[in-house]
Amino acid sequence: MHLSARSKFHLLLRSKIHLLPRSKIPLSLSSKIHFSMPSKIFTPAMGKAISLTALLSVLGLPGMAVEHLDALLKQADADIEAGDLHGASINLDAVIAQTGELKTVDSHLPLALMYKAWVAISYQHLDEAEKLLQRALDCLKKLPASHKTVDNEARCQATLASLKEAQGSYSQSEAAYLKSIELLQGIGDRDNQAPSYNGLGSLYFKMQKFPESEKAHRQAMEIFLLADGKESGDYICALNNVATALEHQKKYDQAAKLSSEALALAQTKYGGNSDQLLPILDNLATVYEHQKKFDLAEATAKKALDLAQALVGKDSPSLWEYVSSLALMYLDNGKYKQAEEELLHAVSLIEQTKGDHGDGLSLLYFRLGNCYEATSQATQAEAYYKKAIASTAVDKAKKIYSESLANLLKKTALPAVK
User: Fold this and answer.
1) CA quadruple 144, 149, 154, 158: dihedral sign
2) Cα–Cα distance between 50 and 43 in angstroms, integer?
3) Which of 129, 110, 105 has its CA nearest to residue 33?
4) What is the pLDDT, as a whole number, of residue 103?
5) C-alpha–C-alpha distance, residues 120 and 10, integer Å
6) What are the pLDDT digits (tens) for 134-176?
7) I need a labelling partner for 49 at 20 to 30 A (CA). Which of 100, 310, 323, 329 fits?
8) How far lies 177's CA from each of 74, 110, 131, 160, 202, in Å?
9) Are 244 and 210 in contact (CB under 8 A)?
């Protein structure tokens, strides 16, 4: 019997990597939490940044105070770029305290509050970050209307949207993303709309609104294309995100074309051994699987796993998603022995992880049940179906697992004695 590695609850039962552009986000922030940060923040190392002195419209502050606040913000910016979040917090707290002492609201204070919010997000202190962003928005409303004030308000809204998304408040997140885009459209700033469109597309993806996700990611893709060309990392990420949205609308041929294009561009830009290829390979393998090109899907998933192992080592717990992806390809290809080995390997890896792996473990148990059922090992299949049921708190998953267990028990029940 050939059991498909897919189900109608694809999003629920198999975790996906939905990559957001990270190339212009300080690594210290982006490595902690996935959120759509404005792509042009005030970081000297980012190439297109504008100096803080040029940005700040000062209202009646003494010259020495202005220079001192500028220096503190620049140092905090450098600290964030270097990963010294503690040092950044000290400098930002000094800016906030000194602007409070001067009893004057100027551009230094909302900028410091935004930076402080990003530091809080990096520490997963989301409630604190939300308060800081709301305070920054309140400060911006007290400043004279200007292009830069509106731009900063849009950045605050985009960061707040990402934060709300992380908190699971999707409707508030959507509203904040749309507000950010509206503000930027009002001042004719097209370039900075791209991260908000990208974040909105990823939000719709989580909400399983795939046509809306595709549309938003296409908007981001077009802006990145006009701004930086096809060779930019942001464009490649957006292209892959559009492909993922198409895949979930069952537009597999279009998805395969875009994923293949994204892979070719990424290989040219980063080389053949870059981690930037991993999410593209993962998506492409999934598309091939949907197209029932199982040998090609298996080979692509194997390539992703080999690359990931070369980057982080063969026994890294972070590999469990790539190991499980290959296992699912083996399962779809009817290679049950290989599928069993990889699934058990993935279980051993995920059990070592300390972070959030969603419903990954219960899914692996479920797929092991599938594998053992396909090879007529009913006792093992029953045991893993029960493990899957016990280890998930997701109602839809629990229902699917329970149905599979019931069907197994029905098939293996002894005939009634006459």
Assistant:
1) negative
2) 8
3) 129
4) 58
5) 33
6) 999 998 888 888 888 898 899 999 999 999 998 899 999 999 9
7) 100
8) 27, 19, 18, 8, 11
9) no
Q: What is the pLDDT of residues 88-135, one digit of tens each?
A: 899 898 888 887 765 556 778 888 898 899 888 888 899 999 999 999
- Is the Cα dihedral 122, 123, 126, 130 positive or negative? negative
How far is residue 246's CA from residue 264's CA, in Å, rounded to a whole number? Answer: 19
DSSP H/E element including 298: helix 294-312
Between CA 279 and CA 200 the distance in angstroms is 19
pLDDT score recorded for residue 101: 60
Q: Are 342 and 364 in contact (CB under 8 A)?
A: no
Tokens representing residue 82 in the block: 């270097």
In angstroms, the CA 368 to CA 342 distance is 10
Q: Residues 161, 121: contact at Cβ < 8 Å?
A: no
Kindly report, residue by residue over 269-284, the tens digit of the pLDDT.
999 999 999 999 999 9
Domains of the chain, CATH where assigned: 24-182 (1.25.40.10)
Asked whether the beta carbons of 180 and 154 are under 8 A apart, the reply is yes
E strands present in 218-310: none
Tokens, residue 400: 């699917």
Encoding tokens for residue 346? 């993935």
The pTM of this model reads 0.75
Q: Which residues contact 308 (CB under 8 A, 6 or more apart)?
A: 275, 278, 318, 319, 322
Which stretches of 48-143 are DSSP H helices? Answer: 52-55, 63-82, 85-102, 108-122, 126-141
d(CA 155, CA 178): 12
Query: Using an 8 Å Cβ cutoff, are 267 and 277 in contact?
Result: yes
